[in-house]
Structure prediction request, 365 residues.
Amino acid sequence: MKALKILQLSSEKSWRGGEQQIAYLILFLKSQNVDVVVCARRNSAFSKWCRENEIACYNLGFKNGVDIKTALRIKQIAEREKVDIVNSHSGKSHSLAYLACKFGLDKPLVVHRRVDFPLKTKGFSLAKFNHKNVKAIVCVSNAIAGMVRQVVQYPERVITVYSGITPKRFTHNPPTGYIHEEFQIDRNKMLIANISAIAPHKDYKTFLRTVQEVSSTRNDCHFLIVGDGPLESETKKMAKSMKLTSHVTFTGFRKDISELFRELTLFLITSDTEGLGTTVIDALYNGVPIVATRAGGIPELVINDEQGYLCDIGDYKCLADKINRLLDSEDLRREMSERAFQRSTLFTNENMGAGVLGIYRKILA
Prediction:
């Protein structure tokens, strides 16, 4: 079989879960002797990553979903590089790949969808999914795939490939208490955290209500909000107004996530929408029991009463009850920790990469 050459489109400025998955995919493809070329947003975190990892990269504007100049450049680059497939990884990059096809690009498109927002059922938003060049729509969970199949013209082209993590980025070193020390938290208190962008769909209002409910009856735990984002200031004000500043710490964005997971007793995620949730996979691999909402693809990662507990979206009383149940039983935490680690082996970057490569091969066969 001929060697493949794939053009990957990365349109975002910052580095979040989607960008990490593109990086994992590229490294896997390179390990399988697949040639990769990237179009990344100029001055973005992903453009910098490509330079550092010696990945061929064109820096483009990616100003918005109708950036004609970028769309034309994508067409030119795909033709000049003689790529076999163009793979978009966001709504914006998909829109521009669609426009490139309108301008004459004649390459198969693979579209990744990582969010569980409903698709619009008419106009440009739907047309770009139904274009004849779109040969596969790769969804990171069955929850997303089900939503997409309901509205697209060719539901058989919708395929689930779960996101993955690279286990080697984590260690199994015992906790050292460095987070307690850094933020002056009582060393006897168990740490419960969410690690995510502080964005609307993460529903930190429910997170704080859960903190309030738990802290009203116990004082042996402390909550962490790890990350930054557009609602950081607003969420801090909310915590202050709810008189929770002594119970929850905002750590800001951190680069020590692989070590931080070792310090946690529980992982709490209260999203109202969630494509899959790769930090949930991180928690599974680190054996951290999870208390979560049934948002998007989370129930595909966490089996209720196996690796943790699931509650309805917004149900802070249920979330608090499950946290209390786990904090009260070290044996239960240990059992769920073991099952969490076992389940994490299903969600690796190699499984993800092999799944996507299989789709490429099938399209070109």
